[in-house]
Amino acid sequence: xxxxFSVKDKVVVITGGTGVLGSCIGKYLASEGAKVVILGRRKExxxxxxxxxxxNGGEAMFLVTDVMDKDVVERNCADILAAYGKVDSLLxxxxxxxxxxxxxxxxxxxxxxVSEFERVLNVNLTGTVIPTQVFLxxxxxxxxxxxxxFSSMAAFRPLTRVMGYGAAKAGISNFTAFMAxxxxxxxxxxxxxxxxxxxxxxxxxxxxxxxxxxxxxTERGQDVIRQTPFKRFGRAEELCGTIQYLISxxxxxxxxxxxxxxxGFNVFAx
Length: 270
What we know:
Blueprint: E1 11-15, H1 20-31, E2 35-40, H2 43-55, E3 59-64, H3 70-84, E4 89-92, H4 114-142, E5 145-150, H5 163-186, E6 191-198, H6 207-210, H7 219-226, H8 240-247, E7 258-261
Parallel strand pairs: 1-2, 1-4, 2-3, 4-5, 5-6, 6-7
Helix pairs in contact: 1-2, 3-4, 4-5
């Protein structure tokens, strides 16, 4: 029996690919034989990731993108098809948060900056819809493909403070379920749409929120650890196995799911 977890020679596009999680996943998939396309805003970081992958014998390319600009994403897609002739998988890892879309302990709902709330919705949710719309087309033409969206613990329960981010990630989980049915019934049951919901992983965006300069936990970080049965934050590489499963033939009968990778955070109860 062939290796159902194999991703060898699959062309995998990763939005937000210069981030801590996206870059780790990209490097891992390249080590497994995938042809990885890193999409991001920061060219210097993107080029460095590609160089590291190639130095280790992998295949990769980097393209500057803006996930909220369909014209830019379509140009990215054209460049990828020119280079590789296909798109097998799309990982929608682009996202982020803004201070104005959060409510700190000293604030109230009335302090929310609506324009920043809208920007958080756009970069996370619209920034998932647009790449999906663009990269789904070559998958439809091929009759097969996989899409993995990035949800969050904030989609399962209304975490304090992160109102905008939580609303956007809940939308992504719903969008994932909607698209799973949409593509299977209208295009091909061999096109699958799933999501991954990481628990708390230290990234450049949340590091100062969860840890102090000396590495100890902030009050927020302590709250997270208290509610995580594993009593630690996740490591970026601990997402790789689930991603590989979702884009490989190992999950050929799996669609519309949100795979939780959280050290037990979502099942914690007092």
